[in-house]
């Protein structure tokens, strides 16, 4: 969308430190506003390891990565960071995180009369979504909408239009060919893990899905795992000929390239759902304690590919941290592996 008038601000700082899925969701918004306002320079301040998300941005976007644990840890850390940032002469700040650290940075900028606008998380509305009785399942604003609104409050009017971090194509497979080889059959991404138990489809049931895909025809299943998860996936790789393990050896950039060549990604409500969405890959997502109505579904994904059970107790949590009140996580154990298999197989 072309800009309608000259922008009020020329050098804008956008702040979102974490989490990985939330930072990934900034990409469509940042790319869209940068294209609509080519005369404004936007700097994305985030965790240094998220740099690959922003590699394909327009020329008027810069990424500034920091390591908060190493370089900006402890008392006075945010003032130290502010002094470093002040040298770049930002004339406006968009705080799309609104946590203690970004609150401190926003305060320092306001002390020096810099325009600051901050995200509204609408926590009251989210409580109505997760309460036990009389749940309000009205879809909330998506994170993409909330990020856009913050920038609109700074005077930037634009539509969010985005297809992939690789534009209309896919990532350069030659960059990881020594690890994954050529694509000669359908590729399936499988991300069976998440940060919280309320988001994880039981592994014994997920193995049933993996086994069905393995026996259904020639394909390759790339299962994403890290740390303690590796042992479980290694067992699958030894049992099923189509299963291959993806660990940290590819790096974030390599994983994004690989995901762009997937026929489909099977994931929880997790960061991998958002990473695949950034590459334009369709995602079949499994939802347990959480719910798409909270506004955290991946960019451009089909709601029909959200697999979930209609239970009076769900959603019980926005982020999946809450313990199951019944102790059995029936919102996940009750999902039939055949349902998941059918959704994934439709893309092969």
Could you write a compact summary of the structure shown?
33% of the residues lie in helices and 15% in strands.
Task: Name the descriptors.
348 residues, 6-stranded parallel beta sheet, 5-stranded parallel beta sheet, Rossmann fold, globular, 13 helices, 2 domains
Order of helices and strands: EHHEEHEHEHHHEHEHEHEHEEHH
Main β sheet profile: 6 strands, parallel
Spans where pLDDT lies below 50 across 5 or more residues: none
Per CATH, the superfamily of the largest domain is Glycogen Phosphorylase B
The secondary-structure class comes to alpha/beta
Number of strands: 11
- As laid out across the biggest beta sheet, the strand order is 8-7-6-9-10-11
Q: What's the number of domains?
A: 2
Q: What value does the average pLDDT take?
A: 96
Word description of this protein:
With 348 residues, the protein is α/β, with parallel strands linked by helices. It has 2 domains: 11-153, Rossmann fold, CATH 3.40.50.2000; 174-345, Rossmann fold. The protein has helices at residues 20-24, 26-36, 77-86, 100-111, 123-130, 143-153, 177-180, 203-216, 230-239, 251-260, 271-278, 330-333, 337-345, and strands at residues 11-15, 41-47, 61-66, 92-95, 115-118, 187-191, 220-224, 243-246, 264-268, 283-286, 306-307. The strands form 2 sheets. A 6-stranded parallel beta sheet has the order 8-7-6-9-10-11, with helices on both faces. Helix 11 links the parallel strand 9 (264-268) and strand 10 (283-286). The longest helix is centred in the middle third of the chain and has 14 residues, at 203-216.
């Amino acid at each position: 969308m072309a800009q309608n008038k000259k922008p009020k601000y020329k050098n804008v700082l956008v702040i979102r430190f974490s989490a990985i899925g939330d930072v990934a969701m900034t990409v469509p918004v940042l790319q869209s506003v940068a294209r609509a306002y080519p005369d404004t320079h936007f700097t994305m301040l985030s965790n240094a390891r998220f740099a690959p998300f922003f590699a394909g941005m327009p020329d008027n976007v810069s990424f500034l990565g920091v390591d908060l644990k190493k370089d900006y840890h402890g008392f006075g850390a945010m003032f130290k960071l502010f002094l470093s940032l002040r040298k770049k002469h930002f004339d406006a700040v968009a705080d799309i995180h609104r946590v203690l650290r970004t609150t401190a940075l926003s305060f320092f900028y306001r002390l020096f009369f810099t325009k600051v606008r901050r995200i509204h998380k609408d926590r009251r509305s989210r409580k109505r979504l997760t309460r036990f009785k009389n749940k309000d399942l009205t879809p909330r604003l998506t994170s993409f909408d909330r990020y856009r609104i913050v920038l609109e409050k700074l005077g930037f009017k634009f539509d969010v239009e985005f297809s992939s971090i690789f534009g209309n194509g896919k990532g350069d497979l030659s960059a990881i060919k020594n690890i994954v080889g050529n694509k000669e059959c359908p590729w399936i991404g499988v991300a069976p893990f998440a940060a919280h138990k309320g988001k994880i489809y039981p592994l014994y049931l997920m193995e049933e899905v993996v086994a069905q895909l393995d026996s259904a025809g020639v394909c390759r299943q790339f299962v994403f795992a890290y740390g303690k998860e590796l042992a479980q996936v290694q067992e699958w790789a030894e049992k099923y000929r189509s299963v291959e393990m993806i660990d940290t050896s590819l790096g974030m950039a390599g994983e994004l390239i690989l995901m762009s060549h997937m026929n489909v990604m099977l994931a929880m409500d997790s960061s991998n759902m958002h990473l695949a969405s950034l590459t334009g890959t369709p995602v079949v997502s499994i939802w347990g304690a959480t719910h798409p109505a909270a506004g955290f579904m991946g960019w451009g994904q089909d709601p029909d590919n959200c697999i979930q059970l209609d239970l009076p107790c769900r959603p019980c949590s926005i982020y999946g941290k809450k313990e199951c009140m019944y102790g059995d996580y029936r919102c996940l154990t009750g999902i039939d592996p055949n349902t998941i298999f059918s959704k994934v197989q439709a893309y092969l």
